[in-house]
Model the fold of this input.
Amino acid sequence: MSQFENTPDNSFILVGGSNKKVMLFTLEGSYLDTISTQNSWVWACKTHQNKMAIGCQDGSLSVQELSLMTVHSLYKDRYACRDTNCTDILIQHLLTGEKGLPFVFA
Done:
């Protein structure tokens, strides 16, 4: 790892390095996805609002836009969506309005 950077909302970490990739992790260190693959080592990555700048060992510089979508699902009288950290799932019982994690509802 040669560089890490918090995302603008401080809920994720971008990590880049000798594997030529910029990867997205939670603040707890759980790997989520590879955001970008470059042609040489990633020496720097910096975020501003929803943009990410990547500087590489070969002198290349790229700017990419980060877009994290909310995932929604409906099943019978249940509504599920990802929490803001993208690792927890919140479930809402539509008839009672009760909200919680999946183990709350049997």
Summary: The chain has a mean pLDDT of 79. The first strand starts at residue 3 and ends at 6. Residues 72-104 form one domain. The CA atoms of residues 7 and 47 lie 6 Å apart.
